[in-house]
């Protein structure tokens, strides 16, 4: 058995040249599917045409990003592609559009479409990619997870280089907004879902006293305009609040013994705050502080290697706020060196998903090992 995948990358800004560069790195006779992540700077219609012309008849899915992850570390303004070989993967995908009307009945039909028949010796998993500005992830995930029946599932929300204007997913040869693409994979490789954040709680609390959860908008914290209360908490002038502040001073809600980060997206003119996750009135937010970006993640991946063997590759959805934090703390070189230790592909997201939960400020994804009895394939 040959290597079960290929990772291809291109820094060409012209879509035709970028796709040609990718195609030169891939043996198309072995392709069982193709997953890609791309900068929102590309002219997307031209990129779609180039992909369709170059990979005729290939099952393809992907989305726009706020940065790309490769086996070289972080990339920007690039196209990164995971080619899945047909002897190790079966790939099917389905479109959810619009996200706002998705329900359990549609979820059941979608799951039947993804897994009509299991391959012998193959296990199923699901990767979901959603429009990251749709504010619909929580409701869609609830319906989808109820029908997956325990099938391993994670994913990420498409981004647009932190412009917060329009994000896209790719399905059946075209880019879509207000949509999600759900990718069903069956594989003979051992795998596991992982999710990690590097944040720990402080004692300071903020209570959501006025909010619209459907818009993910918080109007008041502790009875004050939300942005003003947050600015005072972190000691920053209100008018200077930026995504870097949101990355360095995150907030989280506690469920049981676990803290789930609720990342701020932007400040509005009325001093309300938009979040990347739904926030309801009465929610209690805890101020968090950051530990090293890699220490806990390294431990988690080492444990997976102990269970599954060396990494064949890691498919990762990494919150854009983690990337901003690494840049602000001047840890890019350290983080890139860490990421280069294992075969990695992924993207910087506007939110992550794991087992039906919408997350922020995490790196979440699938860790794939090699088939049992094989250490490394060539």
Automatic annotation (TrEMBL):
Residues 30-225 form the FIST domain. It comes from the Bacteria. This is FIST N-terminal domain-containing protein. Residues 226-356 form the FIST C-domain domain.
